[in-house]
Amino acid sequence: MVHLAFGGVAFLVPLLGRAGSITLAAAALLYNVLLAPTFGWDRGYRRAGEPRWAGIGTYPLAVLLLLCVAPLQIAMAAWGVLAVGDPAAAAVGKRWSSPSLPWNANKTWLGSLAAAVGGTLAAGVFLLYAGTTGGFGAVLGPAAAAGLAGALAESLPWPVDDNLPMAGAAAAAMVLGGA
After folding, report:
1. Nearest-CA neighbor of 112 among 99, 131, 129, 130?
2. What is the C-alpha separation between 172 and 75, in angstroms, rounded?
3. How far apart are CA 35 and CA 57, in angstroms?
4. What are 102-144's pLDDT values in tens digits?
5. Alpha-carbon distances, residue 102 vs 10, 30, 70, 112, 164 (angstroms)
6. What burial class does residue 111 get, using C-beta atoms within 10 Å of its C-beta: 0-12 exposed, 13-18 middle, 19+ buried?
7. Interior angle at CA 104, CA 176 and CA 161, nearest 5
8. In the chain, beta strands by DSSP E
9. For 107, which DSSP code?
């Protein structure tokens, strides 16, 4: 739920601009990594035993990096892939049984499909919201590339939390695809 809730903040990017959005992401990062764990304010949303630099810390870091290096419409769309695709994979993968992926026994085919579909839809919504011209047909290709790349990155067994590679892969797919 935290992924989804913070993902809604991406709708503020056009209003806040790059500097305001970066400031907000940096504040979220500082809160999640320094303040909340120090004062115990994160008990309601941090998994038991989760280190500071797990999902709750890498999510705002991924968003901050996107906002610093990518065009804003791509940053918003990749943020959408992260905000919707990652929790969709977890929810579907845990709720319904399906075979594990050959390259990562902790991930399932249905979970990865949910990440791809959810990420694609979120990327499309944010690309349209950001003003991409040409309507749905113009955003379908870049959104699908972002959703698929994000889902693939989420499925791989990384030595770091999957938020960073998922967001990066989604953004890179859109840049390489000419979005």
Report:
1. 99
2. 10
3. 11
4. 999 999 999 999 999 999 999 999 999 998 767 788 889 999 9
5. 34, 37, 32, 12, 22
6. buried
7. 65
8. 100-101, 104-108
9. E
pLDDT of residue 24: 95
Residue pair 78/174 in contact (Cβ under 8 Å)? The answer is yes
Q: Is 45 helix (H, G, I), strand (E, B) or coil?
A: coil
Tokens representing residue 75 in the block:
């940053």
- Residue tagged 């845990």 (tokens): 94
The letter for the amino acid at 102 is P
Q: Which pair of tokens denotes residue 62? A: 């991924």
How many C-beta atoms surround the C-beta of residue 81 within 10 A?
35
pLDDT given at position 49: 67
Structure token pair of residue 33: 């990594």
- Residue 4 has which token pair? 């989804």
Look at phi and psi of residue 17 and say left if phi exceeds 0, alpha if psi is from -120 to 50, else beta.
left
Residue of 53, 63, 72, 52 lying closest to 26 (CA atoms): 63
Q: Please state the domain count of the chain.
A: 1
Q: Which two tokens stand for residue 132?
A: 């991409």
Question: What one-character DSSP code corresponds to residue 84?
Answer: I
Q: What's the pTM value of the predicted model, to 2 decimals?
A: 0.89
Look up residue 12 and give its DSSP letter: G
Per the structure, the complete domain to which residue 9 belongs is given by 2-176
